[in-house]
Each structure stands twice: as structure tokens, then as C-alpha cells.
Recover the amino acids of this structure.
């Protein structure tokens, strides 16, 4: 098991005060974070930009040292035996980092195998097996600069597996990949956990990917842990924040305070969250979208119908929207929902 306990990371930086002057500054990227990853489990690490995900993954991968706190991998403390921990973990970053473009796929794997202290014969066997497993057997002796994006990403996976790690950290693994390649990669990740018992930590800006793969999710906000739960339970935390969208013609801004007043007195704790006005080419008129958040979007729509008629608005269409994981991440990070 990986056990991160009370870990804080503070970056020492410089803040520019002018053209030639700067002063020391400190950025707390991760604050007192505790998390664990079990073998065979896929754990998500989510949060908006700057939440501290990459910093956390880099600390777990031994690439960055925590300012305080402890990280243990299968009972071995990272600060006491970094090398033993390095044998047990590896990281796969999205995009095209961490590969040598002028080397072939096979040469890249040989190079990284050597870094992990594998013998030449063992690296050769592992490289061959992994290249075939990720579908790059035919391109093993081609320079990486000739690979497509998807091929580079598959080589990243092989590189991340070269030391047969017990724990694998994936930072945006499907970033910029076409849908079929991303799907294939998700299947591989699932197999690594369920069939080979690897513990996996995954960051992703694609909520569907997290919903599909992750058993549990840690949600970070500005370096702090907001909550840890199953993806479906996280969505349930904001289930009371449904949105009713009504597209209407005849809207004018003088109606906004009247609508806000009407909603404030409604029995559904409703709130007007957005009004967008667009020209509807079919109706050659302006259509305003009134978006109202409330615990029951359907009941809210029913309640809004007489109010719109009373104020001379004509409804073009209406729809209700239930929150998904993406909404939950945004709402909870903004301090809305139950976790606030
Ligand atoms: N090398 C660094 N020096 C100073 N501050 C840094 C450094 N790296 C990251 N930070 C700051 O630490 C905070 C967390 O950054 P981090 O990259 O870990 O977040 P993230 O959740 O991975 O963000 P993103 O989703 O944008 O990749 C941010 O405020 C960022 O500006």
C-alpha cells in the first residue's frame, strides 16, 4: 500500500517587483495531504487547475521532495530508502515528455531499463514483451520522431512499465489523444489494475474517464483535500443542484429583478444562475436562455411556466440538467454542495 501522511509542499519562488527587483515568495502547492492507494485499485486525483495534482504525483514518484510529512510504499519510508521506492513506482505523463526522439522505441526502453538497474538481457526481454503488448512491435526499431501521437503515448506506457512497478502514476494519460486510442489506453489501465494487481493513481481533466476507471477519487482544491469518495457518491453530493434551462423570446433585462424576486419566494430554493441571450436564426428573433438552479429542475420548470406567460414571454424550448462529475468538481471546488 502507498500511504502519504500529512504531506505539505512549499515551492520557494521569486516574485518580480519591477524590471530589476524581486523578492522571495513561497507557494503552498499541497497542504497537509493524506492519501492511500491499495494494490489493484485505480484512484483518481482531481481538482481544477493549480489544485496540486502534478505536485502530488511528482512527490509520489520521488521526483520532488515534500517539505514535510511522510510517504511510505509497502512499508518503506521514501526519505529513508529512495532507491527501494523507485523500484516499486513509475509515472506516465501525458503528451510527449520523457522520451528521446532520436532514439528508437526499443532504444528508449533499453535506456530507461538501464536507469532502473535492469541487466541487458532482462531489459531486452522486457522491452520486446512490452513493445508487443502496447502494439508497437512493428515500429520497435523506428526513431520516436517518426511515431504518431498515439504511438508515442503507447511507448510512454511501455516506458512506465519497464521496471514492472507495483504502483503507477498517470498524469493526464489521454491528453490530446483521439477517442479510439484513448479508449484503448483506458482498457490497458483497467487491465493493469484488475488483472495484474497494480495500484494506480490517475489525474485527468476528462470526468468520464474518471467515472469509467476510478474506484475512489480524491478531490483537491488549492492544495487541500476537499473529500475522498466513489465518483457516484461525489455526484450525489451536488444532486440537489439541478438546473432548469428555459429558452424564451420576449425577454428584457427589466424582468431580471422580478424573476429573482419570484424565485426567492418559490418553495424550491431556486436561484437564477445564468441568462444568455442569442439570436435564433430560425425564429429570426432574440432567444434568452434562463438557467435556474434548484433541487428539482423538473418542478422548477412547471413552476416557471405561469410566470413566463404572465410576463409576456414565449417558451421556445425547455430542458432539465442533472449534475455529472464535471459539475460536481466545479461546484465543490467553488464551495457549493455538501462538502463545503
Ligand atoms: N515549480 C514551481 N514553482 C513554483 N510554484 C509552482 C511550481 N509548480 C507548481 N507551482 C504552483 O503550485 C500550485 C499547484 O500546481 P500543480 O501544477 O501541482 O497543480 P495541478 O493541479 O497539477 O494544476 P494543472 O491542472 O493546471 O496541471 C500552483 O499554484 C502552481 O502555480
Amino acid at each position: 500500500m502507498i500511504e502519504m501522511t500529512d504531506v505539505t509542499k512549499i515551492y520557494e519562488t521569486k516574485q518580480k517587483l519591477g524590471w530589476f527587483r524581486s523578492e522571495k515568495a513561497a507557494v503552498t502547492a499541497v497542504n497537509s495531504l493524506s492519501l492511500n492507494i491499495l494494490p489493484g485499485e485505480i484512484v483518481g486525483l482531481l481538482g481544477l487547475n493549480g489544485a496540486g495534482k502534478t505536485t502530488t504525483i511528482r512527490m509520489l514518484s520521488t521526483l520532488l521532495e515534500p517539505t514535510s510529512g511522510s510517504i511510505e510504499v509497502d512499508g518503506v519510508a521514501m526519505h529513508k530508502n529512495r532507491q527501494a521506492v523507485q523500484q516499486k513506482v513509475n509515472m506516465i505523463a501525458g503528451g510527449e515528455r520523457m522520451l528521446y526522439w532520436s532514439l528508437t522505441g526499443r532504444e528508449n526502453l533499453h535506456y530507461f531499463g538501464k536507469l532502473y538497474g535492469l541487466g541487458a538481457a532482462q531489459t531486452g526481454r522486457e522491452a520486446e514483451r512490452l513493445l508487443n503488448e502496447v502494439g508497437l512491435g512493428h515500429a520497435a526499431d523506428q526513431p520516436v520522431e517518426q511515431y504518431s501521437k498515439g504511438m508515442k503515448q503507447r511507448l510512454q506506457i511501455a516506458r512506465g512499465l519497464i521496471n514492472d512497478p507495483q504502483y503507477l502514476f498517470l498524469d493526464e494519460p489521454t491528453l490530446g489523444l483521439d477517442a479510439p486510442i484513448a479508449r484503448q489506453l483506458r482498457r490497458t489501465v483497467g487491465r493493469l489494475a484488475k488483472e495484474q494487481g497494480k495500484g494506480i493513481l490517475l489525474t485527468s481533466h476528462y470526468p468520464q474517464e474518471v467515472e469509467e476507471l476510478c474506484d475512489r477519487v480524491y478531490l483537491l482544491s488549492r492544495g487541500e483535500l476537499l473529500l475522498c469518495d466513489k465518483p457516484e457518491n461525489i455526484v450525489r453530493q451536488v444532486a440537489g443542484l439541478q438546473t432548469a434551462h428555459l429558452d424564451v423570446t420576449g425577454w428584457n433585462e427589466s424582468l431580471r429583478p422580478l424573476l429573482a424576486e419570484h424565485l426567492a419566494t418559490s418553495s424550491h430554493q431556486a436561484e437564477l444562475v445564468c441568462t444568455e441571450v442569442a439570436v435564433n436564426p430560425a425564429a429570426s428573433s432574440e432567444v434568452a436562455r434562463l438557467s435556474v438552479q434548484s433541487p428539482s429542475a423538473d418542478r422548477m420548470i412547471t413552476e416557471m411556466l405561469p410566470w413566463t406567460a404572465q410576463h409576456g414571454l414565449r417558451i421556445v424550448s425547455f430542458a432539465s440538467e442533472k449534475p455529472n462529475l464535471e459539475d460536481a468538481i466545479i461546484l465543490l471546488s467553488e464551495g457549493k454542495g455538501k462538502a463545503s
Observations:
- The domain at 242-322 is CATH 3.30.70.260 (Alpha-Beta Plaits).
- The mean pLDDT is 87.
- The chain has two domains: 2-236, 242-322.
- The radius of gyration is 25 Å.
